[in-house]
Amino acid sequence: QQEVESGESFAERDSLGFHVAGRFDRVLDVDECHLMPPFVNDIRNFIREFVKERKWPFYDLKEHTGFLRNLLFRTTSKGQLMVILSFAENKKEWIVELMETLAEKFSEITTLIYFINTKLNDTLYDLDYVVYSGQGYIEEEFDGIRYKIRPKSFFQTNTKQALRLYRRVKELATITKD
Predict the structure, then answer these.
(1) Is the pTM of this model over 0.90?
(2) For 93-127, what is each residue's pLDDT tens digit?
(3) Which of 3, 9, 72, 102 has the smallest number of CB atoms closer than 10 Å to its CB?
(4) H helix runs in 34-83, sequence order
């Protein structure tokens, strides 16, 4: 907390966590996120250590250098997990080593996907992705309706609140079979 409030540069730049509020170029390293299932913490912490042990560079948002750029998790109430990695360089050997290790070590991962992003911004919607393992999507279900969620799909991340919202919209719409 003190480091965030100080305004100074973080001593440790090799981080996997959350962007610091108001700072596009700072990531606060997080060991435990209480918003996600515990195994997500295990995966994130494993990736951080795996990359650091190999001395692969984390992406620097100011200098636009490095390899490991972004890590995203998407979960469903059905227990499915999509892990999405974004790399700033297309180093196939490194990518395969990391992806293969993740696929072998973490059976909780339903689908494992990566992007190569050499652009100056972090948007992924205009990029192609590679499905390394799994079907390339996860599924959510609300009141008997199944949704396929792909890496570029918009879907409310808080599924409990999304279900409440969908039910409320349905109620307000007063849809009948006629």
Answers:
(1) no
(2) 999 999 999 999 999 999 999 999 999 988 899 99
(3) 9
(4) 38-53
- Cα 40 to Cα 109: distance, rounded to the nearest angstrom: 9
Tell which residue, 26, 88, 24, has the closest CA to residue 51: 88
Contact 155, 140 (CB under 8 A): yes
Other residues' Cβ atoms within 10 Å of the Cβ of residue 166: 14
Token pair recorded at residue 27: 């990531």
Candidates 64, 69, 1, 61; CA nearest to 30 is 1
Residue with tokens 């469903």: 76
How many angstroms separate the CA atoms of 107 and 109, rounded?
A: 5
- Closest C-alpha to 109, from 37, 35, 32, 19: 37
